[in-house]
Amino acid sequence: DVEHAQALLGHLVEAARTASWVVLSGSLPPGAPADWYVVLLEALAPLRARIAVDTSDDPLRHVAAGLRRVTPELLKPNSQELAQLTGARAEHLEAAAAAGDPQPCVQAARQLIDRGVGAVLATLGGAGAVLVEAGGAWYATPAPITLRSTVGAGDSSVAGYVLADVDGLDAPGRLARAVAYGSAAASMAGSSLPAPDQTDPQAVTITRVG
């Protein structure tokens, strides 16, 4: 209800005062309005913490509509969500990425950069990921893995990106660690999340594509 939402908002803002990053991810709790991530973004905007958003469906559509007012530092869509945000065809993005051509994903992500998003990390499953910023675009291809579960892979990618940024890595380094964490999570059973020593960013191939 409204009272609980306001209480949670207050706790989040207070915790964010000393944070480097705030990650808003997943589906919204029952009873929360569909635009609640936009409300949170607006409340967090005056603080110094950078904000990452990883969600889908109606909450993601509201974030996109709210880009006129407030923008996250990082947006992490998969190919379906990137298509949803930009009007691209998801099957075209996926087919191109599977064939080793990241340019359709890069071009779609640039639409979001042009609307003020700091960086777009678009994860493409086994085809890797692209990272697009105002200053360039990079494509990452992971080492082969035995796929066991995709649950938590996207969350792990965001975690790898944020940890790399806190460590001061450049864009290719942030992308490599994001993909390494996502790949490690996908190779683990159930919803297990990888520890740093279970990831191998050096095994990720990074190519500048824009």
Secondary-structure blueprint:
Layout: H1 2-16, E1 21-25, H2 36-44, E2 50-54, H3 57-65, E3 74-75, H4 79-86, H5 90-98, H6 103-114, E4 119-123, E5 129-133, E6 136-141, H7 153-166, H8 171-186, E7 205-208
Parallel strand pairs: 1-2, 2-3, 3-4
Antiparallel strand pairs: 4-5, 5-6, 6-7
Anisotropy-based shape: globular
How large is the radius of gyration?
16 Å
Strand order of the largest sheet: 1-2-3-4-5-6-7
SSE ordering: HEHEHEHHHEEEHHE
- Give the low-pLDDT segments: none
Return the average pLDDT rounded to an integer: 93
- Number-wise, the strands total 7
Q: Give the biggest beta sheet.
A: 7 strands, mixed
Structural class: alpha/beta
Roughly how much helix do the residues carry, as a percent range?
40-55%
Number of helical stretches of at least 4 residues: 8
Strand content: 15-25%
